From TrEMBL:
Pfam families: Transketolase_C_1. The keyword Ribosomal protein does not apply. The lineage of its organism: Bacteria, Pseudomonadati, Pseudomonadota, Gammaproteobacteria, Vibrionales. Keywords: Magnesium, Metal-binding. Residues 35-147 form the Transketolase-like C-terminal domain. InterPro entries: Transketo_C/PFOR_II, Transketolase-like_C_2, Transketolase_fam. This is Transketolase. It comes from the Bacteria.
Length: 160
């Protein structure tokens, strides 16, 4: 029996996390394959860049919206695959994370230290520095600072 091959999706993947759906245009969807891309941008040069992955992207988007409403120029970069992003040409990496924008905040519910590569030594990272806590996810997120309020406050420290 021959199996007919069809072009298109071969699997459908669901997350156990309650992730907010982010609107993306066709270019952004294509750039997901580059490991990191601009999800939300400002008009002109950004003052600050949020870098996030997974469920933390929603926090970065919410924080960016709050800062934008206060008159700040903020970019949100979704970085689902750092190793793939690192393999992109220098021009693409610079277009997404311009070296001239040093005010950067990474939001990652995993290990924090890795993200200094992207935020620099003067950037801020909201991430885990310990292991072994047990509680409902909502309580742990608050305890470790994964709140819009904390993300905004870290950004404001850099912008001050």
């Amino acid at each position: 029996m021959a199996i007919e091959r069809k072009d298109g999706p071969t699997s459908l993947i669901f997350s156990r996390q309650n992730l907010a759906q982010q609107d993306r245009d066709a270019e952004q969807v294509a750039n997901i394959a580059k490991g990191g891309y601009i999800l939300k941008d400002c008009v002109g040069k950004p003052e600050l860049i949020f870098i996030a992955t997974g469920s933390e992207v929603e926090l970065a988007v919410e924080a960016a919206a709050q800062l934008t409403a206060e008159g700040r120029q903020v970019r949100v970069v979704s970085m689902p695959a750092t190793d793939t992003f690192d393999k992109q040409d220098a021009a693409y990496r610079e277009a997404v994370l311009p070296a001239a924008v040093t005010a950067r905040v990474a939001v990652e519910a995993g290990i924090a230290d890795f993200w200094f590569k992207y935020v620099g030594l003067n950037g801020r990272i909201i991430g885990m520095t310990t292991f072994g806590e047990s509680a409902p996810a909502g309580e742990l997120f608050k305890m470790f600072g994964f709140t819009t309020e904390n993300v905004v406050n870290k950004a404001k420290e850099l912008l001050a």
